[in-house]
Amino acid sequence: MTIVQITLPDQLAQEAKQAGLLSQTALVKLLREQLQARHQDAFFAAMERMEQFEEPPAMPPEEVAGEIRAMREARRAKAAG
User: Is the pLDDT of residue 81 over 90?
Assistant: First the structure.
């Protein structure tokens, strides 16, 4: 377990203490909520960045099959050589 020491303005510390926000349980909950919110913000920011790019056109099935065949042949050649 890590011990964290913080400095707060007196008024804020008193209000937070009276509200029960300085207990270990409350602080753990607040920190977890903030971490989750930041992860969500990062996720949505990534989604927005992804929306800026055009999706490439779909490959026809024959082209996909050709790519798979070429990959398999390359693997076989590498394994044999």
Answer: no
Rounded to two decimals, what is the model's pTM? 0.59
Whole-angstrom distance, CA of residue 9 vs CA of residue 27: 17
d(CA 72, CA 8): 63
Query: Can you list the alpha helix ranges (DSSP code H) found in the chain?
Result: 10-18, 24-51, 61-80
User: Cβ distance 48 to 40 under 8 Å?
Assistant: no
Query: String of b and e for 8-25 (b: at least 16 CB within 10 Å)?
Result: eeeeeeeebeeeeeeeee
**Burial of 47 from C-beta contacts in 10 A (0-12 / 13-18 / 19+):** exposed
